[in-house]
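testing teh design pipeline on a random one, pls ignore if ur not involved
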């Protein structure tokens, strides 16, 4: 029995008691209303679900279990996972114990490789990654225990088992996708004793003589871990999981949402946009040139990837953290310098463009500041990870930690099947006329 499992055994009864008390005492409190504009507008801002792992404050960004991200920048992903699940940063013994548990479960079954090698050569890496997760569904402990008739109180236990197995295998699968999709040669096995982030980089085949690539991998995997419950991937995973579909189904579904260009795929689009700008001006562009290209992009009806956010109204602290890493490790890299310069120019451009939109009777742009995706690609690019179609897979490996933690919590407290009420426009017309 792992230290993390024992800790969860202590916590689950507390979570259940808190939930029961909350519903008993405050069950009738109104959390939110929903306007017609919100119903048409992706339910933005409607408070209608519970997520304990993290919170995104518009003026602060990601807060993991009560801790602002930039206060815990140095956590390793294993510590992040522990924190997401329990609210505690593990001590050294618990961290080592979790690392051993991941070691034990890290073997990727052969049939996964058969499936991946059989896929078309031009498959998107996200399709390969999600297919790999889905094809392991037959191994779900949750599904097999459910079929045997386990009691509801135990649902969280095999969910946690599945979570650990999925977590342990994801770096190997993701690295395998990289090597297969980009013809990098044979697969590289997991190194026992090496941490989750460094193992991932190593299995991709990156030599790391200084240790800075491993440092970047840990930072990247830590930063992308979770972003509360309502974003497309978390919300999709939550909804699919609420039907008691097991974690393989639920995480794969969530990651299909992450593959959308307005969500996780934005990170491939971002670097693309930066490189396009450099291409157009033959090197790192000046501020004036960036301004020109930004307006050109906006006026051709496209978004500037990496800027704006559904919730945030300030610079994303994850962008700030990546920028700090860049300034420390690659200050003279022209791609990084361009990202940094774009940061000084684009918010102002978006502000001006937003005013033009408003004058033309359109919505304002709610947030002019960079999000997580604006700068991370430049760092990966510097270390030779140049296949930017692949970047969302890295994001996915990390985001799976949040999705899995949320699933464990939901199964532990017995969250109900998701079923918001939809209405047609007829309903609005009829009620408006009253
Ligand atoms: N460039 C141009 N226009 C933008 C914009 C940007 N970066 N950000 C927002 N807008 C536009 C929207 O497209 C919208 O236009 P329409 O009304 O014509 O549809 C208008 O401004 C109002 O949008 P909003 O209220 O400011 O933002 P939303 O909550 O609707 O959308 C998005 C949030 C992140 C999808 C949006 O800002 C965007 O498309 N950004 C660029 C893509 C991007 O960086 N995505 C990654 C987000 C982070 C993430 O989830 N990573 O996984």
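output:
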């Amino acid at each position: 029995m792992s230290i993390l499992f024992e800790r969860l055994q202590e916590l689950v009864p507390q979570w259940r008691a808190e939930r029961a008390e909350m519903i008993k005492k405050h069950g009738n409190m109104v959390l939110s209303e929903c306007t017609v504009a919100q119903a048409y507008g992706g339910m933005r801002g409607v408070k209608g679900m519970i997520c304990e792992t993290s919170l995104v404050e518009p003026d602060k960004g990601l807060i993991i279990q009560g801790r602002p991200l930039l206060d815990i920048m140095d956590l390793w992903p294993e510590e992040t996972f522990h924190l997401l699940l329990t609210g505690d940063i593990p001590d050294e013994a618990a961290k080592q114990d979790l690392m051993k548990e991941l070691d034990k479960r890290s073997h990727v079954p052969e049939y996964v490789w058969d499936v991946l090698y059989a896929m078309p050569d031009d498959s998107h890496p996200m399709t390969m990654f999600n297919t790999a997760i889905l094809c392991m569904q037959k191994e779900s402990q949750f599904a097999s225990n459910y079929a045997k008739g386990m009691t509801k109180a135990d649902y969280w236990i095999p969910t946690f088992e599945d979570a650990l197995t999925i977590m342990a295998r994801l770096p190997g699968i993701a690295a395998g996708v990289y090597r297969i999709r980009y013809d990098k040669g044979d697969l590289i096995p997991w190194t026992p004793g090496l941490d989750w982030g460094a193992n991932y980089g190593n299995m991709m085949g990156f030599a790391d003589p200084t240790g800075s690539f491993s440092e970047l991998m840990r930072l990247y995997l830590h930063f992308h871990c979770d972003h509360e419950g309502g974003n497309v991937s978390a919300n999709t995973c939550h909804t699919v999981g609420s039907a008691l579909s097991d974690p393989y189904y639920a995480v794969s579904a969530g990651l299909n949402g992450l593959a959308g260009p307005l969500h996780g795929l934005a990170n491939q689009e971002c670097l693309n946009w930066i490189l396009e700008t450099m291409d157009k001006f033959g090197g790192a562009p000046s501020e004036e040139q960036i301004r020109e290209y930004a307006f050109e992009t906006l006026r051709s009806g496209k978004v500037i990837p990496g800027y704006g956010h559904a919730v945030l109204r300030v610079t994303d602290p994850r962008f700030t953290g990546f920028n700090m890493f860049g300034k420390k490790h690659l200050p003279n890299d022209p791609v990084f310098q361009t990202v940094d310069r774009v940061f000084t120019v684009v918010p102002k451009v978006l502000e001006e463009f937003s005013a033009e939109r408003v004058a033309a009777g359109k919505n304002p742009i709610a947030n002019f500041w960079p999000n997580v995706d604006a700068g991370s690609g430049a760092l990966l690019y510097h270390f030779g990870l140049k296949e930017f179609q692949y970047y969302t897979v890295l994001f996915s490996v990390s985001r799976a930690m949040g999705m899995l933690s949320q699933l464990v919590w939901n199964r532990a407290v017995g969250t109900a099947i998701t079923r918001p009420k939809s209405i047609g426009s007829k309903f609005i017309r009829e009620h408006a006329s009253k």
